[in-house]
Amino acid sequence: MEFDPIFFALAVPAVILAGISKGGFGSGIAFLATPILALVVDPGLALGVMLPLLMLVDAVTLRPYWRQWSLPDARLLILGGLPGVALGAALFRIANADHLRFLIGVIAVGFVVYQLITAPRAGPRAPRDLPWSIGLLAGLVTGLTSFISHAGGPPAAMYLLAKGMSKTSYQATTILVFWAVNIFKFVPYAFLGIFTTETVWANVLLAPFALIGAALGVYAHRLVPERVFFTVTYTILACAGTKLIWDALT
């Protein structure tokens, strides 16, 4: 992998965008950085470049949202995420990721359409109780899709948005969940040879931009009103789902 101007022209904005998404808007489009990098490097290298940067953003954004998460929901997603990561590791070399991308994309877009149809026209978002099995299933899919392509944001978002929590609780919960899921992913990534000397050097050069993106995301989260936040979040989820469908079909 050569660190040429084309690489940095794509990598720098992609990493900043991932940091903004993870730091302020629930990780919904953080996964887009991987396919962007895959335009100029091997997809396996793109995964290896992004994981340490995503872990860095997770670490620095835990403190601003400390203890503002929904621990029961985070626990369910994390517990489901662990076998999801294991399944992703087992299927990494043989699974057809396009089928999975298409399924998740259709569910994500369908979820947004359903929410728009059924949402009340006015009034606060009411918290909802969901069966614990739904949380575990969402965690399983989150861990699986996160391992294969860092695309765990949409399935986690669908579960947490359906709970009707506040914007900060939602954001804090996603940060806690992906902090754990990305740690789970690190060891099998290493055993699969996804990390190389080249990815380490790329991490060193791109880390400042990941931190800039995280800081911008935290600032934007505090600045944006709750109604606008969820409008942006649903829009991101719909765009992420559409992108997954597009990637699967093309």
Give structural notes.
This protein is mainly α and 250 residues long. It has one domain. 77% of the residues lie in helices and 0% in strands. It contains ten helices and no strands. The radius of gyration is 17 Å and the shape is globular.
Features:
mainly alpha; 250 residues
Give the biggest beta sheet. none
Task: Give the SSE string.
Answer: HHHHHHHHHH
Task: Give the overall shape, derived from the CA principal axes.
Answer: globular
Structural class, from secondary structure content? mainly alpha
Strand content: under 5%
Helix content: over 70%
For the termini, the CA-CA separation is 25 Å
Q: How many individual helices? A: 10
Mean pLDDT: 83
Q: What count of domains describes the coordinates?
A: 1
Rounded radius of gyration (Å): 17 Å
Stretches where pLDDT is under 50 for at least 5 consecutive residues are none
Instruction: Tell me the number of strands.
Output: 0
Can you summarize this structure?
With 250 residues, the chain is an all-alpha fold. The protein has ten helices and no strands. The longest helix has 27 residues.
Chart the SSEs and their pairings:
Blueprint: H1 5-24, H2 33-37, H3 43-62, H4 71-91, H5 97-118, H6 132-149, H7 153-162, H8 167-191, H9 197-223, H10 226-249
Helix pairs in contact: 1-3, 1-9, 3-8, 3-9, 4-6, 4-8, 5-7, 5-10, 6-7
